[in-house]
Structures are given as structure tokens and as C-alpha cells.
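ingest -> validate -> predict -> emit
validate: passed (alphabet ok, no gaps, 372 aa)
predict: started
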Amino acid sequence: MDALRVDTVKHMPIWFWQEFNADIQTYRPDVFIFGEWIYNHPLNERSLEFVNCSGMTILDFGLAMAIRQALGTMDERGFYLVQDVLDLDDHYDSATELITFIDNHDMHRFQSLNSDPGILRLAVTLIMTSRGIPCLYYGTEQYLHDDTNADGNPYGNNDPYNRPMMERWDTESELYRDIRRLSGLRRLNPAVSMGSQWQKHITPDVYCYVRRYRDSLLFVAMNRGEAVTLEAVATELPDGEHKDVMSLENLTAHGGNLHNLHLDRHQIVVISHVGDRVKGQTIVRAQLNGVHTQPGERVVVTGDCPELGNWDTSKAYPLEYINANTWFGEIPFDESVGKAIAYKYALLREGKSPLRENLVCRRWVIASERHR
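emit:
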């Protein structure tokens, strides 16, 4: 068993979940656990405490409902609804681990809100390329929905109509191919699974953003409305030709921008630029929350081993800025494998002395085999 989904977690006290997760993870440290707290939101203090303190992550209803409004019911605010939720990511300690989705067994299927297959492609691409871990409801990749009206509901699709039997398994449908392609992209490009997210252009109908981790990038543009041409969109991509993984056409970046980017109705552009992956005998993932930094400041890990600079902060290992609450990084170890090391986090400030943590050294025992 690789993962557990825990139902209706808000009905038990948080201390129960802390003990539950501690017991599960003591037995299986690598198991992934997420909870269902219906209609949770980053501004809801109780559900936020659960995400940050329970030991498990959660299904991201805040983002799901924003996507269902922006693309399902075509709310006039459009993609601003999605960005409004993402702008609150610093409320979470690990926003990149939130479970993202567009529908599930407790709500109308997405296509009962909007039956246009082009809009469904936009919604699926959005969760496959945005921060978080996408969770697809069975049958979505087969356009499965039953709009039989139940109990007079204007959308229909109440139980059991949102849970019909599978009627087909078409591996040649456009959406199935999209999901297969984007799943491979998530495995290949660490910016998608671990990186920060930066909005580059937004209107109610058009949404462009960049995912960034180290020197890996992902650029995404999508259009829910009529055809439009964008004079210039910042992408951070290196100059030259880049292949759009959706259309397989080449687009040229110049000065970090795509110029005269034309987006047809419901068109999606996804460009992936993969840098060097972190390599080492053992890789430690380090994350620091709650450090308030200013532009230009950097968080590093310094310690008593070569990989961390032997306490020389100029040679310390840099972490990546994810959002205003989170710095994260993968640290490779070779020489210090199998040893106990001491370390601290430090803040590098332009024109000022480095600021180290004012506490007793933290400690790791670096495993002698590859762990993540």
C-alpha cells in the first residue's frame, strides 16, 4: 500500500490524528497520507491547523471550488478566482503537497457543470501543472458523466449518477493522451512537483504561469475564451526554440519572453525546460518554514561537513524559495554518507553579515543508502 485517503477528518480532534499518523509512519515511514475535510479553505483556521499540524496533508477544496467556478460555471471573474487561492499558499507549511482535484464522489462531476470537452482539458491541465499533487476521479479521462436529473437538482448528477460504471477505456482520446503526456512531464521536470509558482499574465479568460525549481522551468498558458494574441509574455525560458508539449509545435523565446503568443479558444501551451537533477549517493530533502525574507535574501544550510561548506556560509547549500512561508531543497551527500553531521540554517543578506540560527546545532545521521 502506497497511500491512505482518510475520510471526514474534521470530525476527530487533531491530537487523535497526530497519534494516528505517528503510529502509521513509525510502521511505514514512506506511506503517503491525506485527509478529506470538505470545503476546507486556507482562510479556515481549523482546517489550516489540521494541514500544518496533524501530520498529513489534505484535499484542496479551496482550489477545487475556484476551478469549478472559473471553468465549470464560467464565473465572470474567471482565472482570478484560481489566483486568489494560490496567493494564500503561504498559509500552508507544504502547499506543494496539497491534493488537487476538480471533482469527486461527493459532488457533481465536472462535466455536469460544463459539458464542453475543451473546458475539461483546461481544468485537468491546470491541476496537472499547478502546485500540489493531482488526484483524478475515475472516468474523468473517459469523459464519464451521467446528467440524469436527480431530485430536481438543476445540475443532476447526484448520487448515484456521479458514480456510474465505466463504459469504455479509450486510450486514444484527446484527454487520455493529455494526462499520459502530463504525467510523464511531472516525473521528468522537478519544477512541477516541487517548485514555486509565479503568475505571469492573467485576465478572466487567459492564465499564464511559470513553475520554477533550481534551473528547471515549466511555462503554461491557457485560454478559456475567444482567440487572443498576447504581445509579450514573460516565461523565464532560455532564448531559442522550445517545443509545446500539447501541440508539438516549436515556439521561440527571446529575452525570456514569448512574443505575439496566439491562443485559440480553449488552447493550452505547455513548455518544459529541464535542468540538471540533483545527484548524490544520498539525497536529503530539507524544508524551512516561517522565515520572513526580503528580496535578494537567501536561505542556506551550513554545517560541519564538505557538502554544507564546513561552516563556511559562502560554501553553504542554497535552498529554493517556494513561497513566503517555505524554503525547500534537495541536498546531495557523498563524502558524509553514513555519518552524523551538525547543521544550521543561515540567511545570506546582501551587504550584511550572514545571519545564523541562534540555537544549538541541528543534527542529521546521513543514511548510507539513497533516500528521498
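The CA atoms of residues 75 and 181 lie 29 Å apart.
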